[in-house]
């Protein structure tokens, strides 16, 4: 069932990209109308798609997936963006992109397990240390609403929000589980701290009102909105498949929820996915309205719904319904954001804050994992590789440096052990 789900996701996503119906890369979406309306040829689109997506697949999606043994959605859908845009036009293109997309998805799923099996058979086990890569994320992810508030409303308000989140976490950790009517209710401290921070952020954002004279984006691109609605059911099927795979815990929509799911913290993962979805509403909505091209996972609410249910069948139904609702509410969402510009600004700051938090947390996690595998030298290598990557102009995105460096250290320690230059400590 896992292989069938991943194959269908890979096939359909590649076909959606081939038809210019939906692409995953937010940077590629605004370029698609240039091709669809004849201002860019196929070769130019394919080259641009490869340039935008390939580095993220190799340098981010796959390393993060290996660290948690769950496929990050970026691994599949950035690849299918490339496959879809490189495949020929027309019916032949749909078939070619669908077949290659399915092979890509299956290859990732089987390849990930193959890599993990190899890691476990090496002279020095560094599969267990790799589990430490995501540990700092577990405890730090609830801080990003405070960071977003600090960006938008100043450091003082950010510190106040951080204090509120920390207090909520401490109270929940102290008094959970709560007994109500003889029933035990267990609350996740990090999840509740995140919820508290998001409530404060929304209160701040709702206080900003619309400026006079602004134009609603929907009135400018009504024909492109109609194009998305025309393809709503194929998009809904895609949403159902991704939601089912997420509820089966073989896929995750972002590194935070991926890490939480790998540790069994499903409620916290759902809240993190929900917060991320809120942050992506303005970006997905505005680029979709302006381009007529949607995202294969929509505004990413399907990931939160899947993790709240943890039932593939229920999740599939919810995924389908959510995508349909998103598409038909596009105009209303744009009008709402027009009335409350603070919400749109806060969404931008949420994405920035989440990105920066992950950069730091995954770097620390990578250093911890490397130090477990190769004490002392491991941290030296991780920090050194991070700084060299910065000097080189970041050929590897910051978020992926920690996991990539930890994998390099794991390979190195096994080479040293093979040549007798390292003896693992006896436990």
Automatic annotation (TrEMBL):
<keyword id="KW-1133">Transmembrane helix</keyword>
<feature type="transmembrane region" description="Helical">
    <location>
        <begin position="94"/>
        <end position="116"/>
    </location>
</feature>
<protein>
    <recommendedName>
        <fullName>Transport system permease protein</fullName>
    </recommendedName>
</protein>
<feature type="transmembrane region" description="Helical">
    <location>
        <begin position="46"/>
        <end position="73"/>
    </location>
</feature>
<dbReference type="InterPro" id="IPR019733">
    <property type="entry name" value="Uncharacterised_YhfT"/>
</dbReference>
<keyword id="KW-0812">Transmembrane</keyword>
<feature type="transmembrane region" description="Helical">
    <location>
        <begin position="400"/>
        <end position="423"/>
    </location>
</feature>
<feature type="transmembrane region" description="Helical">
    <location>
        <begin position="232"/>
        <end position="252"/>
    </location>
</feature>
<feature type="transmembrane region" description="Helical">
    <location>
        <begin position="357"/>
        <end position="388"/>
    </location>
</feature>
<dbReference type="Pfam" id="PF10797">
    <property type="entry name" value="YhfT"/>
</dbReference>
<feature type="transmembrane region" description="Helical">
    <location>
        <begin position="160"/>
        <end position="179"/>
    </location>
</feature>
<feature type="transmembrane region" description="Helical">
    <location>
        <begin position="314"/>
        <end position="336"/>
    </location>
</feature>
<feature type="transmembrane region" description="Helical">
    <location>
        <begin position="136"/>
        <end position="153"/>
    </location>
</feature>
<keyword id="KW-0472">Membrane</keyword>
<feature type="transmembrane region" description="Helical">
    <location>
        <begin position="264"/>
        <end position="284"/>
    </location>
</feature>
<feature type="transmembrane region" description="Helical">
    <location>
        <begin position="191"/>
        <end position="207"/>
    </location>
</feature>
């Amino acid at each position: 069932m896992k292989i069938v789900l991943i194959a269908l996701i890979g096939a359909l996503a590649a076909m959606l990209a081939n038809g210019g119906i939906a692409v995953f890369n937010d940077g590629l979406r605004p370029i698609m109308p240039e091709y669809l309306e004849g201002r860019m040829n196929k070769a130019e689109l394919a080259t641009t798609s490869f340039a935008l997506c390939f580095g993220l697949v190799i340098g981010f999606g796959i390393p993060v997936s290996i660290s948690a043994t769950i496929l990050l959605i970026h691994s599949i859908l950035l690849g299918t963006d490339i496959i879809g845009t490189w495949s020929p036009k027309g019916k032949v293109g749909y078939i070619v992109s669908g077949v290659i997309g399915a092979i890509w998805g299956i290859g990732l799923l089987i390849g990930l397990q193959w890599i993990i099996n190899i890691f476990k058979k090496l002279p020095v086990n560094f599969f267990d240390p790799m589990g430490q890569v995501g540990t700092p994320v577990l405890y730090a992810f609830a801080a990003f609403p405070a960071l977003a508030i600090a960006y938008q409303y100043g450091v003082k308000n950010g510190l106040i929000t951080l204090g509120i989140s920390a207090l909520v976490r401490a109270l929940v950790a102290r008094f959970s589980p709560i007994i109500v009517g003889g029933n035990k209710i267990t609350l996740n401290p990090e999840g509740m701290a995140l919820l508290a921070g998001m409530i404060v952020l929304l209160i701040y954002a709702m206080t900003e009102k619309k400026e006079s004279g602004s134009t609603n984006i929907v009135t400018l691109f009504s024909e492109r909105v109609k194009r998305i609605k025309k393809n709503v059911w194929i998009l809904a099927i895609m949403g159902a498949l991704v939601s089912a795979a997420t509820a089966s815990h073989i896929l995750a929509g972002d590194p935070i929820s991926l890490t939480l799911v790998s540790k069994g913290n499903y409620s916290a993962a759902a809240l993190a996915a929900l917060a991320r979805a809120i942050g992506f509403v303005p970006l997905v909505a505005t680029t979709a309205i302006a381009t007529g091209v949607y995202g294969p996972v929509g505004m990413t609410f399907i990931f939160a719904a899947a993790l709240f249910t943890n039932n593939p069948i229920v999740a599939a139904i919810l995924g389908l319904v959510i995508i349909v609702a998103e598409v038909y509410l596009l105009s209303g969402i744009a009008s709402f954001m027009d009335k409350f510009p603070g919400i749109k600004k806060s969404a931008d700051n949420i994405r920035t804050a989440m990105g920066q938090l992950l950069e730091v947390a995954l770097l620390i996690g990578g250093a911890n994992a490397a130090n477990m595998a190769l004490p002392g030298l491991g941290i030296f290598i991780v920090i050194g590789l991070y700084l060299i990557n910065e000097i080189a102009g970041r050929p590897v995105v910051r978020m992926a440096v920690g996991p990539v460096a930890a994998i390099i250290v794991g390979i190195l320690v096994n080479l040293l052990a093979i040549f007798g230059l390292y003896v693992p400590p006896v436990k």
